[in-house]
Amino acid sequence: MLPYPPHHPHAHNPLLAIVTVLPRCLHACRYEVELQNRGKIDVHYQLIPPSSAFGSKFAFEPDQGHLTGGQIQVIKVKLLSDLLGTFDEVRGARMRV
């Protein structure tokens, strides 16, 4: 993710697709995603808190930090769901230089 608006040609918005929550995920499923500053400007990022009821079932660590130009930060995602099924959830990030 870059300090560019989403429509900028250098912006890159990764997506984590968890298609279906299975019974083995009822207690906790763990994922890792990479947040990369593909630019040359250092940025501070902060993940935006969830706005939906299901969004609160996700935990991100770290949920904020500093990325230098070219740096990659691994973010651990934990899903604690008591529900089965298919759902959509979007999580954004605020960037500032």
Structure description:
The structure is a single chain. The chain has 97 residues and is mainly β. It has one domain (23-96): Sandwich (Immunoglobulin-like). 0% of the residues lie in helices and 34% in strands. The strands form two sheets. It has a three-stranded antiparallel beta sheet with strand order 1-5-3, with no helix packed on it. Strands 4-2-6 form a three-stranded antiparallel beta sheet, with no helix packed on it. The model is unreliable at 1-11 (pLDDT under 50).
The biggest sheet amounts to: 3 strands, antiparallel
Mean pLDDT: 75
- For the record, give the distance between the C-alpha atoms at the N and C termini, rounded to a whole number: 13 Å
Total domain count: 1
Give the helix tally.
0
The helicity comes to: under 10%
Order of the strands making up the biggest sheet = 1-5-3
Kindly name the structural category. Answer: mainly beta
CATH superfamily: Immunoglobulins
List segments where confidence is low: pLDDT < 50 over at least 5 consecutive residues: 1-11
Return the CATH topology. Answer: Immunoglobulin-like
Strand share of the residues? 25-35%
Radius of gyration: 14 Å
Under the CATH scheme, which class?
Answer: Mainly Beta
Give helix and strand order, one letter per element, not per position: EEEEEE
The appropriate CATH architecture is Sandwich
Number of β-strand runs: 6
Shape: elongated
